[in-house]
Design a protein that fits this description.
The complex is a heterodimer of chains A (261) and B (212). Chain A has 261 residues and is α+β, with helices and mostly antiparallel strands. Chain A has 6 helices and 5 strands. A 5-stranded mixed β-sheet of chain A has the order 1-2-3-5-4. In chain A, 19% of the residues are buried. Chain B has one domain. Classes of the chains: A alpha+beta (261), B mainly alpha (212).
Chain lengths: 261, 212
């Protein structure tokens, strides 16, 4: 009888121990499961953001292409017609009115500027010309305005990359150049492209007034540096690394590093 | 002594009821736990009175057993995320109800203790607890599970009803032959009962308008 009682007590104690062990095991497993779940969630969120960014870029590229075609086909045509009329007028009247001659020149310049703009906006031109030629073209356009001196340095064995990557890289460079024109007040601008065996490094440098980048890290400044954030996101989309350094009064340096196969 | 023991765990239930009453917007699963506590409290009062007046309270426990199965099913069905687990819980509940009703008639549960029925009920709740543990592992919701009220309720049910399976199977074998051995099991069951209601009380203490 007593042995039966002690058996029951031992079984009871074992059962409680086993149940307690099960609960502890569950808590540990749950933590692991939660960590795995969080990682999966993070990856999904990242993919979702990338898809959104990709879609935004596609829409933007499509819009730019449409604008570029409109400039080329409609406004360009109209201006060409106006230029032709002015040329005829010039020919008909020997010693033509100075205003007509001047208008002729202005219209010619407008046509050229629009063509440049159209090319710069059009995805097909960028794909056709390649990254370096497109950057060179942008720098030429800036140089022509006389705002600042520009230079392009290319080092290493130049090679073409996937079209989408080149386009996104070009848009990042373009955005940086626009920022310099709009905000830097610089007199010189240098773009250096360095083709290394496994990496393409693009450095955009100006000697402008610089910018305080500290508000970028503050959450209460969501509007600040939207363009910089966009460039950062675009770079992430193609697996590139984007960084920006600036010192007030000593210019800004933008560096993009893209791993290449 | 019997009454004193009952008063202790009735006090814990009452405390949990009072605490839950003052918590705003309880999620559905916790609201059903609250309802179960009220019914348990009422049932225990009736069972104690009946034991004194009629010397038998088996009928009250028999009715409560069925109500408890349905309420525990509702608590769990509102806790699962997976619809598959919810379906499984419905199947288990139906099977358990059928088994308990059959044992009621076999054991004349209105006049004597229905140990088999209680064992079936305990097994059913343990299955629900395991299903909820699986559900949490599959769909983790919070970094720390121990801050979730439903974790403590589930742990309480799991421990209490696991011990109850052991108790009621033991009861079935020992009630006819070895009452001394059976009495050794009573403190274990009583402690698990205290643990269950302490867990429920604790879950209402930590509840902060969360739902799990």
């Amino acid at each position: 009888m007593e042995s039966e009682v002690s058996k029951i007590i031992i079984t009871g104690i074992l059962l409680v121990g086993l149940l307690a062990f099960f609960i502890i095991w569950f808590v540990i497993m749950y933590r692991r499961s939660y960590t795995r779940y969080e990682k999966e969630k993070e990856i999904l969120q990242l993919r979702f953001q990338e898809t959104i960014l990709q879609t935004q870029l596609e829409i933007q590229e499509q819009t730019l292409k449409t604008i570029s075609q409109e400039i080329h086909d409609n406004i360009g045509q109209t201006l060409s017609l106006a230029k032709l009329n002015l040329a005829l007028e010039e020919e008909e009247q020997a010693g033509a009115n100075i205003k007509i001659v001047s208008s002729h020149r202005l219209v010619s310049k407008a046509i050229q500027d629009l063509r440049d703009l159209s090319r710069s906006l059009n995805t097909d031109y960028v794909a056709e010309m390649g990254l370096i030629r497109s950057i060179e073209y942008e720098l030429e356009m800036i140089s022509k305005t006389g705002i600042m001196k520009t230079s392009l340095q290319v080092e290493g064995l130049q090679r073409r990359m996937e079209g989408q990557k080149e386009l996104i890289l070009f848009r990042i460079v373009q955005e940086s150049l626009n920022n310099i024109i709009k905000h830097a007040g610089a007199t010189t601008l240098t773009v250096a492209a360095n083709y290394q065996p496994h990496e393409l490094q693009i450095v955009i440098e100006d000697n402008g007034k610089g910018v305080d980048l500290s508000p970028l890290n503050e959450n209460d400044n969501p509007g600040f540096g939207l363009g910089i954030r966009n460039m950062h996101n675009r770079a992430r989309l193609i697996g590139a690394e984007f960084s920006m350094n600036s010192t007030i009064g000593r210019g800004t340096t933008v560096t993009i590093k893209l791993p290449v196969e | 002594m019997w009454l004193a023991k009952r008063i202790l765990y009735l006090a814990i239930i009452l405390l949990a009821i009072i605490l839950a009453r003052y918590k705003k917007k309880l999620p559905t699963n916790l609201a059903w736990v609250y309802n179960l506590l009220i019914i348990t409290f009422g049932m225990e009062i009736c069972a104690i009175s009946s034991a004194y007046v009629f010397k038998n309270n088996s009928f009250i426990y028999m009715v409560f057993g069925i109500v408890q199965i349905l309420m525990i099913y509702l608590i769990y069905s509102f806790s699962f995320i997976s619809s598959k687990h919810r379906q499984l819980a419905s199947i288990c509940t139906t099977a358990c109800l059928v088994a308990v009703v059959v044992t009621i008639f076999l054991n004349k549960a209105w006049i004597q203790v229905n140990s088999e029925g209680n064992a079936f009920k305990s097994l059913f709740v343990v299955l629900l607890c395991l299903l909820l543990f699986t559900d949490w592992l599959k769909y983790p919701r919070n970094v720390s599970i121990i801050t979730e009220p439903m974790f403590w309720i589930n742990t309480g049910f799991f421990l209490f009803f696991s011990i109850n399976i052991f108790f009621w199977i033991g009861y079935n074998f020992l009630s006819k032959s070895n009452m001394a051995a059976l009495r050794q099991l009573e403190p274990l069951q009583y402690s698990s009962n205290l643990y269950l209601y302490s867990c429920i009380l604790y879950s209402f203490v930590i509840y902060k308008n969360k739902n799990i």
